[in-house]
Amino acid sequence: MKLRENEINDHNNLLKGSHKVRFDFLSKLIPESESIISKLINFQIAIPSWALGSGGTRFGRFPGGGEPRNLEEKIEDVGLLHKLNCSSGAISLHIPWDVPKDYRAIKNLAAEYGLRFDAMNSNTFQDQEEQVESYKFGSLQHVNKAVRKQAIEHNIEVIKHGIELGSKSLTVWLADGSCFPGQLNFRKAFQNTLESLREIYAALPDDWKMFVEYKAYEPNFYSTTVGDWGQSLLFTSKLGPKAYTLVDLGHHLPNANIEQIVSLLLMEGKLGGFHFNDSKYGDDDLTTGSIKPYQLFLIFNELIDGMDERNMNHASGLGWMIDASHNLKDPLEDILQSVEAIMIAYAQALLIDRAALKEAQLSNDVTSAQEILQNAFRTDVRALVAEARFRSGGALSPLKLFREIGVRNQLIKERGSKTIATGL
Amino acid sequence: MKLRENEINDHNNLLKGSHKVRFDFLSKLIPESESIISKLINFQIAIPSWALGSGGTRFGRFPGGGEPRNLEEKIEDVGLLHKLNCSSGAISLHIPWDVPKDYRAIKNLAAEYGLRFDAMNSNTFQDQEEQVESYKFGSLQHVNKAVRKQAIEHNIEVIKHGIELGSKSLTVWLADGSCFPGQLNFRKAFQNTLESLREIYAALPDDWKMFVEYKAYEPNFYSTTVGDWGQSLLFTSKLGPKAYTLVDLGHHLPNANIEQIVSLLLMEGKLGGFHFNDSKYGDDDLTTGSIKPYQLFLIFNELIDGMDERNMNHASGLGWMIDASHNLKDPLEDILQSVEAIMIAYAQALLIDRAALKEAQLSNDVTSAQEILQNAFRTDVRALVAEARFRSGGALSPLKLFREIGVRNQLIKERGSKTIATGL
Amino acid sequence: MKLRENEINDHNNLLKGSHKVRFDFLSKLIPESESIISKLINFQIAIPSWALGSGGTRFGRFPGGGEPRNLEEKIEDVGLLHKLNCSSGAISLHIPWDVPKDYRAIKNLAAEYGLRFDAMNSNTFQDQEEQVESYKFGSLQHVNKAVRKQAIEHNIEVIKHGIELGSKSLTVWLADGSCFPGQLNFRKAFQNTLESLREIYAALPDDWKMFVEYKAYEPNFYSTTVGDWGQSLLFTSKLGPKAYTLVDLGHHLPNANIEQIVSLLLMEGKLGGFHFNDSKYGDDDLTTGSIKPYQLFLIFNELIDGMDERNMNHASGLGWMIDASHNLKDPLEDILQSVEAIMIAYAQALLIDRAALKEAQLSNDVTSAQEILQNAFRTDVRALVAEARFRSGGALSPLKLFREIGVRNQLIKERGSKTIATGL
Amino acid sequence: MKLRENEINDHNNLLKGSHKVRFDFLSKLIPESESIISKLINFQIAIPSWALGSGGTRFGRFPGGGEPRNLEEKIEDVGLLHKLNCSSGAISLHIPWDVPKDYRAIKNLAAEYGLRFDAMNSNTFQDQEEQVESYKFGSLQHVNKAVRKQAIEHNIEVIKHGIELGSKSLTVWLADGSCFPGQLNFRKAFQNTLESLREIYAALPDDWKMFVEYKAYEPNFYSTTVGDWGQSLLFTSKLGPKAYTLVDLGHHLPNANIEQIVSLLLMEGKLGGFHFNDSKYGDDDLTTGSIKPYQLFLIFNELIDGMDERNMNHASGLGWMIDASHNLKDPLEDILQSVEAIMIAYAQALLIDRAALKEAQLSNDVTSAQEILQNAFRTDVRALVAEARFRSGGALSPLKLFREIGVRNQLIKERGSKTIATGL
């Protein structure tokens, strides 16, 4: 489904008046509003191809309708989102779910929608129909060399697809681990994984990055072989300069201080990218910002501070991606909410008075340090985010417009109500 | 698959010698060993029909082969387990996965294997093919009366199946809850659920029990409507004397003191039954006793103490059931390990010197209280458990025998390697 | 220390201009702003007498200077805070730290500052010099009747002090529990505690409330006898209509859904009051709103919804109190920040479009339900809170004024730099 | 207090008979029992000087009597413990609590009791009377160079004391961190700490080790600057070959897999030592093995496996120390229980059939791997531990003898009932 010519304009014309009041008020309060807006305009969050359909749990899945049936329709969906919010200008593919049949056609299609191909994702946590070896007991860690080899080759194949599409990074998320004490020799599992990663790393083009994602638990429930940032950093340090650690917000033990992890990884020059989502209990994969918006803000505070210190470009210095599971909401609406929450957190973090913060820190003025952060967080920056979108040609209220024009019904009409997108 | 006539005997004859040495030693040390053995003989743990096949996670499932294809084969599997360990003399069915076509035939089959029908389990957390209303947004809590009605009627139908089979209890586990703040009016959800449970309760025969299971989270990731023991107790207190709270070991927040909960529910006369498993992170559904065996022992300590105080029969006073997910191990082997761990914990808890413990408690002698518990836990009671099994006609080492006679290969031969049992 | 006559006026005159711009903008956006302001004006949060000095941990304490040396100085400090923010019009005393020598004088002093006496707090978690029996192994739960009696009598004495001062409630927080498995008979501990609470309850005047506070752990590290809301509710239900459960935000297991607990306690008519603070790990007792401001907002959402349903007065229907430990910040500044965060959360929750929320809930429109809550939370309501304060005669920016007039230095000058207030 | 000449002999003579029965039975079952016994004999666990008195929490402390009043009495207490169990042949000192006045006298005294001086501990988490700069906002991380310098010099002084006493290691546990978002620049705090540690490292003799301990939280409740093993490893890797990571069992986030951390640190050659205790919630500092004995066993499993792989001597390859807080029990009894639990876990882990385990791992036989571990854990090895003690001249039942001869009463008589040892 595509938007009709004037749909965004018509929508904006109706909201422009009240938006202007808010924006004018805000821009007067915030001297640096123009600089913030231009950063917001540049900031793009990749949408994962597998998050466009209904997600589920081991207990079941309740699909909505109109889910994309193939890679083309996935690109179409992300294109629609990007049209609406002008902040989702990239798609992240997952192999084997998204193997392109015709690279050129796919690239052209993406270009039509203004989309880049973000990080490529491999899958060695499931067994595919045609697969010879099983990943039941791990992939890159496996005690059996043949299994490791198969998993390595799969990753190299994923890189090849990525090269064709113009992607510049590979995300390796491993489910590898164990469910019971004794199952695994932890050191052997680490060494096997390292050796496997080295072979994949060797196949990486010079201008590519490899992201090694960590996760505390699930689907293995006793140990995970890349289980925390410390383990990921061990791997990426041993691998070399193209290897980076990737942080997924839901992949930590309870109460972890994620913003501190982010800060230290940036200090070490080893933070590679982000998977945004939110959670209350485990890897709940909820809408970004729906549970702990202040934590999201604090993470952006560290990102900006650490990236600025290293002169990294906010937009291109790290890989930004949503990774959520949309079990109950319309997946596209859910993504719109996530992107909005990310943009708000980013804008608020840009608002922080860093000179004052530094001064408060240097004088151990804890009260003021807190005030400075809260002052930014409590500011209603939505008009700034909307203005950035507006200037880029997007909708002032993407979610509102999404509903007004009946996207979901249209998609169901086009694709049917029983389609199920590949994913979890 | 059935055991051949002498298989257990032959196995036992080989192990009898070394068993006798251990048992003789132990029975000399433990004056009350005969009384413990007779309690162990009586103690039976129900096996859930859905745990006989490979379990999985939202990320995938790696089925083994030879999984039971229907209710008859499930009964056959539990029968085999019971033959081996003489402690699994009951099966717990799940509707609609186990709808019996011919009650009499099923009852006869179960009787052949010496099996009772334990608690019946309803399923309102998934949508079935033929179902009119969807449980996407809950079942007994649903804002729409029609959905609630459908879920109520399903539960009543489950009761009816149970009556035919001679079951005496219904376990209601509700996935009902919400994934996002705002989604639910908590009080309305509670009231709707209560009203629905009341209708089900009204359909319960006089000699039945209703178990209301609680769970902290999953598959809903913000709130669960029967989320902890306090909420379950609110429901069961309002429902009436046939309603009880059911404790599943994996359904708590991190670090919860489950043994205290058990003790208080017994004090209130409202503990109904148990779902055994183990976990490190969440509802990991691992083999019972594989992660926290001391916790299992402490729970049995409270169970025995509380049941004895109320003159409850250990074997029949509560519903005992395994509820695990066998993702990596042979499900039948996994169950044998769980049952063994439960019997060991029960035997150790029976060993506790309760008079001495009481005295230590009354004099705040914390050191001694700890010594008394640890003394029981550190005792190697395996020979007692084996002796109980032996006297009942079971195998001295069920797991060993299971492997020696190649059960899994035999099942694969009979049922094929691609069968997938109903379950999660 | 007292504010000089025109200090607040002078301060406000300087800020009035920029405040007016913000307030005018906001009040145009929010039709119900006047009603919100009048609710904010009425809302008062009690300050605990023990939070006016530096708190500490078991590892140490780093006192600031100028801490109040006696009850009179504590009242003076709360009076100063109330003068500044007009929202701290009550003080909560702790016995034996705050035993008044002359009731009339103390009452007059408090009246001078416009302060009420909120809930009285007993202390049976420490041994006092003159005490006969030790609370090492508990107080109301103790196996020894003499210890229980002493603790009961102490509570009754606390009530008597409260009656003299015009307080209307007693908060019972029990450290009672155990540090090791076996130490305690959980049921006996419960029964002893219940019996003890009944004796205290019997001494309660008709117009008083008794708040039974729960806490998951600390200072006992294995079990706590009033360990969660379910246990507290068991006690308060058995005790009678004057007994209520008190919620302290830091007293839960990791990831607990506190807002749901609040909602259910209100449903049962058994929520009594609140201890505000914030935490990341355990009972960290940090400044309210400094870690999880969205959770605070969600709790206020439930409070308003539940209180309105029962026609409870927001200001007087429940007991509102801060209970934090000020280890690093100036305690008075810390309290000003806590009160501000509470007022903001309350104002945001008042902003929620409840009709729309209800409609979203009834149609399972999860996306909209989230939007409605986030819309309120993302609104910058600080000008409303400031306006309420302004109209009551308080300072537009209490914290700013506190620093401008050098309160801490003044207090140090008056009281010395080595004073240590009673507390933890 | 010293034991009388024949006290141990008399005690042993009474228990020898029943011990022999158990030991003979066990040694027949376990072919490698002699080798295990000799390892147990060599294994010594250091006792921290600060754990000999009653510990407490921020809510209070309930001292027993007879606590050691000075360093000499602390050595006497550890000497007594070592006499009883022959496994506590080292003491770990804490400066400034244990500054020796006369090195030679102290060394002679320790030698009399057969005690070594284990790791020296510095203290920069509290302010001492005479101290110029305050550690309120950290020590080695402090924004102010003067504070860092003071803390560095303190550590160097601690090393000097250690050199005089023959210690070979320094344990640096830092409380440094922050309580509120914004308070700290994480990277600056890391860099300051690193720089400070480097200065201390430079003062370390060639044959010394520096242990950098990590802790997730407490006494800081937002961030800790050496917060997890990953951060500690970053520090120790940057520092050099004499720097190692120290693991305290209670210093992790909920559900952390500590045994995996241990395994990886050994793999990296960076595990330095251990602080034993146990916990249910946070850093509860309970008796080792009192809450999660299976976890303790699993950790020893990894320790043995990893140390053997690197040909490390079990007894001397790592620093072994108890670090607990004895709030409710007699501290000396508590330590005896901890040491016993450690010896049991060590003996059980030595029992593991490593060849079979390796084979099970290589064939992904998860069931067998679990059986092999559980088989070792379920074995009652207490007679082996007792035999090792017996052969070394210790008591068959140290705790029993401790009580029989009335140690505590004797200590109270000697030292008074109101003494309070230095510590927490």
Automatic annotation (TrEMBL), chains A, B, C, D:
Residues 101-285 form the Xylose isomerase-like TIM barrel domain. The keyword Transport does not apply. GO terms for molecular function: isomerase activity; metal ion binding. InterPro entries: L-rhamnose_isomerase, Xyl_isomerase-like_sf, Xyl_isomerase-like_TIM-brl. SUPFAM superfamilies: Xylose isomerase-like (SSF51658). Keywords: Isomerase, Manganese, Metal-binding. This is L-rhamnose isomerase/sugar isomerase.
